[in-house]
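Morning!

This is the sequence you dropped in the shared folder:
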Amino acid sequence: MEASPPALEAASSANLNTNRERIGVLVLAGAALLAMIGMAIGVLVGPLQITLSEFSAVALSWVGIGDAESVSRVKTGVIENIRAPRSVLGALVGASLGIAGAAMQGFFRNPLADPGLIGVSTGGALAAVAVIVLGGTLLSPILVFLGAFALPIIAFLGSLITVAIIYRVSVFDGRVIVATMLLAGVAANAVAASGIGYFTFLADDAQLRDLTFWTLGSLGGAIWDRVLPAALLMLISIAGLLTLARPLNCLLLGEADAETLGIDVEATKRKAAFLTALGVGAATAVCGVINFVGLVVPHVLRLITGPDHRFVLPGSALLGAALVLFSDLVARVSVAPAELPLGVVTAAIGAPFFFWLLIRDKRTSGLG
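The structure's back. Tokens below.
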């Protein structure tokens, strides 16, 4: 007895879903492996070469297994105080930017969205630039009080204040208007860019160098005292965004259908906006502005696994970590002993990919 067409369609759909789930699991495993390799290479490679056995000895000594006496004090210090915090920071920053980009694209239902649309990065950048330029004058008492944490704390507050203003402007009759939030983010980015330009004009030569590296991003200032507080915020953001997989999947059907399926759409919007601001703000506060990670990584995942956020969100976190780690490696070794800003490398990767997306979308829509 032959199967009816509806039965064939159901079987075909089930097989497609099963194949996508298998692909999704494989992609997650591959992305996790890439991120781990990136962290390991980041510790081993540099002006001072460190072998895998030396790194293993130091790493095992952290958990009380064996000792690191066979490794020189210089190498132990480099591993523990320079390269390990840098690798951890790179992984967390990449994960935060990647998963935030995936959440924003699902939130706006726009594959070209990224965290920068709601002003998180530029708001933090404006606050940091103000600290760098005015630190010796108007903001001197605040800097004395906050000490070495002044720049990341104020940059983080700048990100949160910017998002709070955009969110407030976007709320009408108790509902978040996504189009208004997008336009408010564009306006906030323009205002922040104007402010950054003004402070850049006021800066002296020494401040200009700091501004350049901060606005283009760098992991060079990674020390445990700065990494750990930001790491806590980024981990909270990543964990929170992972819980939005089902709501974001339902939002793909439209807000009305999502509400029919039992999703609190407004709560999902608030949570997505807040967690994105938390993670990207913390990342921006410790390493400056890094562009294109939140745009490129979720696109790659969607091309491979499809739109299911159960795989897109964790995959974007893992692949984002790998991208930032390998980009930082290029930044460190390509012009050694100098160091390229990290944002230059990610932009060199992201901008051509963005052009490819535009050309691809034009062809698939029949416009090219």
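Headline: Strands lie at 171-172, 175-176.

More detail when I'm at my desk.
O.
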